[in-house]
Amino acid sequence: MSTPLPSIAILGTGSMGGAILQGLRRPEVAVGAVRVTTRSEASAAALRAEGVDARAAEHEADANRWAVRDARLVLLGVKPAQIVGLLEEIADALHPEALVLSVAAGIPTAAMQAVVPNAVVRAMPNTPALVGRGVTGISGGSRASAAHLALADDLFRTVGTVIELPEDQIDALSTISGSGPAYVFLLVEEFTRAAEAMGFDDGVARLMVQQTFLGATALLEASGDDPEELRRRVTSPKGTTERAVAVLQQAELAALFTRAAEAALARARELATGA
């Protein structure tokens, strides 16, 4: 990055908060002070052992307030049901110019702005941020300026690609890029089981399937071609792949993936209501 990031507080280092923290620790990323909080002292101690300035909320009642003091970026990495309570806890400790970033599904910026006077940006990263290949959707609340969005963009570009969207599309994005890695991992699981059922031992099955997925996605990225075209090149007329693809298409995968995404979106909307 050409412009260093300002001081950052990460409240909650679960899947998302932890992924962003790992991205910030990459050697090419320039960032000011980073303070983080966790729920348990054990996890905070583990982070401190790695050189992270971390405190546990269960051990220190003011840990979250300590973390946000003087921070210009405050990332909320807790579960959706905890967001409003956390904001109430830190509201009067926030720097007036701090940008609040939430990675919680389903909690709108309006609900957060009702608790704190700061600018708020919603973000939905995914776990490949751990290896710098994340996809993050961002959307600003009514107080967020172009400069705030640029700052959020700078933060999440440290861990991958950033897409700016209207807020009413953030939950839908979460069903694709947010949940998407789980869909891919599920496909790898099931394809590996299919290989084992054909007589390959566990190690060989895993190697074949994982390297096939990695190779195929690398080819997709490197070629710039449409996946449909790449599939056509693999599928020889009247060949084995054509027969296999026909079986998969009989399962109506397009409708299946649509139903899965719609189920995830319905749950995001439930989270917004506290369900």
Would you mind describing this structure in some detail?
NADPH binds at residue 64. Its main location: cytoplasm. Residues 167-271 form the Pyrroline-5-carboxylate reductase dimerisation domain. By secondary structure, this protein is of the alpha/beta class. The chain has 2 domains: 8-165, Rossmann fold (3-Layer(aba) Sandwich); 180-270, Orthogonal Bundle (ProC C-terminal domain-like fold), CATH 1.10.3730. It has helices at residues 15-24, 41-49, 63-68, 83-90, 109-113, 146-157, 170-178, 180-197, 202-223, 227-234, 240-250, 253-272; strands spanning 8-11, 34-38, 53-56, 73-76, 99-102, 120-124, 134-140, 160-164. It has an 8-stranded mixed sheet. Helix 7 packs across helix 12 and helix 8 packs across helix 9 (202-223).
Brief account:
The protein is of the alpha/beta class. The chain is 50% helix and 14% strand. It contains twelve helices and eight strands.
CATH superfamily heading of the largest domain: NAD(P)-binding Rossmann-like Domain
**Percentage of residues in helical conformation:** 40-55%
Shape: elongated
Radius of gyration over alpha carbons? 21 Å
N to C succession of SSEs:
EHEHEHEHEHEEHEHHHHHH
Q: Tell me the CATH architecture of the largest domain.
A: 3-Layer(aba) Sandwich
Q: Please state how the strands of the largest beta sheet are arranged side by side.
A: 3-2-1-4-5-6-7-8
Largest sheet: 8 strands, mixed
Helix count, DSSP H or I runs of 4 or more residues: 12
CATH secondary-structure class of the largest domain: Alpha Beta
User: Mean pLDDT, nearest integer?
Assistant: 92
Kindly report the CATH topology of the largest domain.
Rossmann fold
The end-to-end span amounts to: 40 Å
How many strand elements?
8
List low-pLDDT spans: none
Q: Structural class from helices and strands?
A: alpha/beta
The proportion of residues in beta strands is 5-15%
